[in-house]
Amino acid sequence: MQDQRDRELAAQYDSYPYPARDPAEEARRLIVGSPSHLREVDHWVFGARRAASRPMRALMAGGGSGDGTIMLAQQMAREERPGEVVWLDRSAAARRVAEARAAKRGLGNLRFVEGSILELPDPALGLFDYIDCCGVLHHLPDPLAGLRNLAASLAPGGGIGLMVYAPHGRTGVYMLQDAMRMLTPTDEAPATRLDIGKRVWRHAPDTAWLRRNPWITDHTEGGDAGLYDLLLNPRDVAFTVPQLAALIEGAGLRLSCLVEPLRYDPDIYLPDPKLRERAARLDPVGRAALAEALTGNMGIHIAYCTRPEDQDPAEGRDALWEDPASVPILRELDGPTVAKGIGGGGTLPVSFDGLRVQMPLPRLGAAILGRVDGVRSIGEITDLLAANGASREAVGRDFAALRRVMEPLNRLLLRAPG
Predict the structure, then answer these.
(1) Which of 194, 233, 249, 343 has the fewest Cβ atoms within 10 angstroms?
(2) Where is this region: Disordered (predicted)?
C-alpha cells in the first residue's frame, strides 16, 4: 500500500509532528475531544453495557503527538479503569512528544509501539476492544484497506472511533492545496515546502475562499505543523456522509453513530413542515447527508463503528434509560452550573461551528440536570425530585424529553455499569 506520497507523508510527520504540542502544558490542561472520550466509548460503542471493571485494551492507530492517547489513558487512570492504551505510529518524532506528555502525567497504562496501520492486524499486538483512528484514513493510499486492517484487529464486542475530513466545511482548503503544489511540489524537502507555504498564505488575496472560512484555523493557530498538515499535506481526501458510510460498510463494519447525532438531524434546520415531510422520506444516511449539505460548515466527520455480528449499541438503550438503576452522566459539563444557566424550562442554546440553534427543554430539565453527578441513578434523582413535590410521572416524562435533546448532543450519556 505504500507509495511515493506515503513516503512524503512520513517525512512530513517526522519533521512536524502533528498536532504541535508542548509537554510542559500537560500540567495545565487535558485536551479532550472526540472520538475516544471514555464516556462516549462506554455509551456509543459499548451501549452502556460493558462493565467498568472489565479491562479494556485500546489502540490509538496513528497516535501522532498524542492528544487522543493521553486523553483516554488519563480518563482511564482517573476512574481507575483497568486496561492499557497502545499508541501506534511510525513517526519517531511524534513518539518523543507523546511519551514526554505521558511522563509529565505519570501515566502507567500506556505502551508505545512504532509501526503502521498498514501492517495490521499484528499478532504481536493482539486484538483490541476499542480502536481510535483519528485523522489518518484520509491520508492513506487506500483508506478502505486501512479500515479493513483495523476491523480485523477488533476483539469480539469491540468498536472503532473514526475522524475523517469532510469537504463542505473545508471550502478553500483544496484550492490553496492546488496552488501550493504548483509552487512547491510534494517531493521537495519539508522545510522548503513550509517556507513556500507560509509565503503563499501571507500573500493569498482576500478573495481566496480559505480567508472567508472561519471554521478552519490550523494554518493560523496550529503553528508550523498545523499549516503544513492543512495546506501542504501530500495526500488529503475528504469524505461526504454517504462516502464515509460506504467506506465503513465496505470494511465490514456497522455505522453506530455520527457525533454529535443532533448535528446530523435535518429537522433542526428545517422548521417548515412540508420540508420535514420530504426529509422524512430519506434513510438515516440520506438525512445525515441532507444536514451536511444544508449547513455547509462540517469540516470533519466523527463516527463510531461496531461489528455487525455483535449486538448493536443502540439495541436496548431505551430500556436502559427507563431503568431506575441506570446512572446518567454528563460529558464535560457540570450539572448544577448548567442548571443555573437554564432556570425553569426555557431553551438551551447550541452552537455548531457558527450555526446557532435553540433546543427546547422540559420544565423539570434544569432540576434534573442539577442532580446528575455520575453517581446518582435515575431512580435516586426521581426520588429527590419527588421529595421536592414533583410527581413521578412528570419527572419520568421530563427526563425522557431531556434525554431527547441532550443525548443527541453527546452531552447526557449513560455511565458504564459496575
Answers:
(1) 343
(2) 1-20
Residues 324 and 268 in one domain: no
Q: Are residues 360 and 402 both part of a single domain? A: yes
Peptide bond into 190 cis (omega under 30): no
Three-state DSSP at 327 gives coil
Q: Which residues of the chain have pLDDT under 50?
A: none
d(CA 318, CA 69): 31
Element (H, E) at 256: strand 254-259
pLDDT, position 345: 57
Quick one: 13 and 90 in the same domain? yes
Handedness of CA 263, 267, 268, 270 (dihedral sign): positive
Q: Are residues 135 and 276 in the same domain?
A: yes
Tell me whether residue 298 is in a domain.
Answer: yes
d(CA 408, CA 414): 12
CB atoms under 10 Å from CB of 364, counted, come to 21
Taking the C-alpha atoms of residue 18 and residue 65, their distance in angstroms, rounded to an integer, is 6
Sign, Cα dihedral of 237, 31, 374, 394: negative
Q: Where are the alpha helices (DSSP H) in 16-87?
A: 38-40, 67-78
Q: Which pLDDT value is given to residue 144?
A: 97
**Bridge partners of 345?**
none
List the end-to-end C-alpha distance of the chain, in Å, as a whole number: 43
Residue with cell 512530513: 12
The Cα–Cα gap between 208 and 227 comes to: 16
- The whole-number pLDDT of residue 166 equals 98
Question: What residues pair up with 348 in beta bridges, in sequence order?
Answer: 359
**Which amino acid is present at 249?**
E
CA atoms of 373 and 117, how far apart (whole Å): 38
Domain termination site, one of 248, 273, 306: 306
Supply the pTM of this predicted model: 0.96
CB contact at 8 A, 157 and 260: no
Cα distances (angstroms) measured from residue 177 to each of 67, 138, 209, 229 = 25, 15, 12, 10
pLDDT value of position 396: 97
Phi, psi of 303 (to 5 degrees): -135, 145
* Predicted local distance difference test score (pLDDT) of residue 1: 61
Cα(66)–Cα(89) distance, integer angstroms: 10
Count: domains in the chain: 2
CA 204 to chain centre: 31
Neighbours of 38 (CB within 10 A): 23
pLDDT of residue 3: 87
